Amino acid sequence: MSNLWAIARITFLEGLRSRVFFGVLVIALLLFSSTYTLSYLFPRDVIKVAADLSLGTASFIGVILTLFWGTQLISKDLEKRTIQMVLARAVSRSEYVIGKFLGISLIIVSSMFLLSGFSSLAVFTVDYLTSDAYGVVHWPVFLFSLSMITFMLILLASVNFLFSSFASSSFLALGLTLVVYLIGQSIEELKRFLETGAEGSAISPVFLKVIKTAYYIFPNLATFDFKSQAAHGLAISSSVVVWSVLYGIFYIGVMIVAAALIFERREFP
Amino acid sequence: MKAIFFDQVTKIYSDGFKGKKIALDQLTLEVHQGEIFGFLGPNGAGKSTAIKILLNILFPTSGRAYLLGQPVTDKTIRRKVGYLPENPYFYDHLTPEELLWFGGKTSGLIPTQIRERADKLLSMVDLDHVRQRPLRTFSKGMVQRAGLALALVNDPDVVILDEPMSGLDPLGRKLISDIMRKLKEQGKTVFFSSHILHDVEDLCNRIGIIVEGLLRLTASLTDLLSTPPKGWRITVRGNKEALASQSDRASWKLSTTGGLTEIQAQEIDLYKLLEQVKRLKCEVVAVVPLRETLEEIFLREIQKAGVKPL
Fold first, then answer.
1. Which residues of A touch B57 (CB under 8 A)?
2. Which residue, A174, A9, A154, is CA-closest to A79?
3. 3-class DSSP state for residue B134?
4. What distance in Å separates the CA atoms of residue B99 and residue B95, rounded to the nearest whole number?
5. In chain B, what is the straight-line distance between the N-terminal and C-terminal CA atoms, in Å?
6. Which of A102, B171, B174, B209 is the most buried (most CB within 10 A)?
7. pLDDT in tens, B271-309
8. What's the CA gap between A257 and B118, in Å, rounded?
9. For residue A234, what are the contacts with CB-CB under 8 A and spacing of at least 6?
10. Residues B56, B65: contact at Cβ < 8 Å?
11. What is the ipTM metric for this complex?
């Protein structure tokens, strides 16, 4: 436990002090400050648009930061051979993987905490300056949606971790994670469309099987997307929440165990 | 107990389409506790590979390695080991203090012990004044010293240093040599690889010479360098003409600087040599035995293996 905390802490400190982190946060601040102007382009749904826009911005910036940290903090360890310094201590490869992942998760949680603050402030400002006739903010759903974005980002970091554990370069790991992210965002929709919407049309059964298999292999990131519920103030059932969380924990677990198993066999010349 | 033991360790790297490269070939080597062992070899000889196998960073293709009697696969043994890599690269944004906290924490030290050790070591490596400055602002020598402090934070029984002197200025080299001497006084085992033979000659009890993955020689430095002299270098004053005529007869090599003449003679009998010099009415200023140096031994072993310098 002590080793995990030691690795997580230095990872957290290294990530948090990176200049890129501050740069991205400044961009985020600018994006959030434009929420007010952009929301008024849709006069009838100002609050809905503001909520949707803020959550979308938080998610977008979060993905950029997660991919950046995945590349920076894991691949740099391998490329610059800092990992040798860590493994030369009384640390196992699995502890390295789990500790590093915990550190990156801590950075994601901290930065999402900041981004959530910015995004809530943006929505609050729009809400404050707008009459109730334009809608109200459903804060519990809005905040829940932000926490689920954070959870999705941690899952994405675990995917990046798995790719970094065997990819020969940081760009390859980054590229593969990005592909998984894009597939994960749309796989549920695509599967549903092929199963229901495309009835009657000539879809190859093989293609349908491929999509169904992909659905079980790739992370279904739409599970963590509650942006429209937050914008429209729709209630979220507790079973959906429990299912999403369990699914996320299971997927993260599989990714990290696989990454640890690969690392256990890997050499660092 | 053996501090370090390589038991027939072979390491073969797969070299892509080119085939396989044997980095270590049946390496069997023992280093005893309290010894300073110099591991010598040209570039690519297998020194760093052997060190990384000791730290379980690389796995041997066959054979086993042990640290303090335990297999190197047992991570807990590394609590008693310190390691300084060649060209260390640490986390850019961490400070020396945080680096040592990490080292102490992963060695099972409690916070007060970490603080005590960090204070002592940072002042020993002269980084006390920059203990809260990020490592990315450090020069190569400073990073090397921070690495040495990290290697020693757990007060290890075995210290493994991979080219600790490389790229350091004379002051940095002296600091590291002094620390190694201190470790020797404390009865610690130091295993280090180096190209700088003068430092090895100065510090080691024993050496091993490895060439192309094969251990060519292991010997005590005293045994190696206290062989009978193969000649003498005598510095004398006066009678240069007589010395010149004698040098032709006795095959001496002479070199003159100012009023002093240096005689390099292959004659083994010193008394006979001094008698000859005395007869020429010269004043003897200094006498130095001519022995095979570590550099000559090192080069001889490399030449025997037929390796050309990289």
1. 84, 87-88, 267-268
2. A174
3. coil
4. 6
5. 37
6. B209
7. 877 888 788 788 888 888 887 777 878 888 887 777 665
8. 35
9. A141, A228
10. no
11. 0.80
Q: Which residue has the higher pLDDT, B307 or A8?
A: A8
User: In this structure, are residues A78 and A85 in contact, taking their beta carbons and an 8 Å threshold?
Assistant: no
Tell me, yes or no, if B105 comes closer than 8 A to chain A by beta carbon.
Answer: yes
Alpha carbons A269 and A251: distance in angstroms, whole number: 31
Would the CB atoms of B81 and A82 count as touching at under 8 Å? Answer: no
CB B168 within 8 A of CB B141: yes
State the burial class of residue A153 (Cβ atoms within 10 Å of its Cβ: 0-12, 13-18, 19+): buried
- Beta-bridged to residue B20, according to DSSP, are B14
What pLDDT is recorded for position B56? Answer: 93
At residue A163, φ and ψ (nearest 5 deg) are -65, -40
- With CA atoms as reference, the chain A residue closest to B91 would be A14
A5 touches chain B (CB under 8 A): yes
Judge: A13–B90 Cβ closer than 8 Å, yes or no: no
- Cβ distance of B55 and A88 shorter than 8 Å: yes
Task: Tell me the C-alpha distance between B310 and B302, whole Å.
Answer: 12
pLDDT in tens, A50-64: 888 888 888 888 898
> In this structure, what token pair is assigned to residue A39?
């929301």
Please give the helix or strand (H or E) that residue A121 lies within, else none.
Answer: helix A93-129
CA distance B28 to B47: 13
Residue B232 to residue B266: CA distance in whole angstroms: 7
Instruction: With CB atoms and an 8 Å threshold, state whether A80 touches B89.
Output: yes
Contacts of A91 in chain B (CB under 8 A): 75, 78, 106
Rounded CA separation A132/A136 (Å)? 6
Q: Do A267 and B57 touch (CB under 8 A)?
A: yes
Q: Are B41 and B209 in contact (CB under 8 A)?
A: yes
Separation of first and last alpha carbons in chain A: 27
Average pLDDT (A180-203) is 75
Helix, strand, coil percentages, rounded to 5, for chain A: 85, 0, 15
Are A88 and B76 an interchain contact pair (Cβ–Cβ within 8 Å)?
no
Rounded to an integer, the average pLDDT of B54-76 is: 93
The confidence score (pLDDT) of residue A199 equals: 59
pLDDT digits (tens, 9 = 90+) for B30-53: 999 989 999 988 888 889 999 999
Tokens read off for B172: 């940095």
Range with the poorest average pLDDT among A114-118, B98-102, B246-250: B246-250
Say yes or no for a CB contact (<8 Å) between A84 and B85: yes
A89 neighbors B76 (Cβ within 8 angstroms):
no
pLDDT in tens, A64-111: 888 888 877 787 888 888 888 899 999 999 999 999 999 999 999 988
Angle between helices A19-33 and A46-69 (to 10 degrees): 170
Q: What are A9-31's pLDDT values in tens digits?
A: 999 998 888 777 778 778 877 87
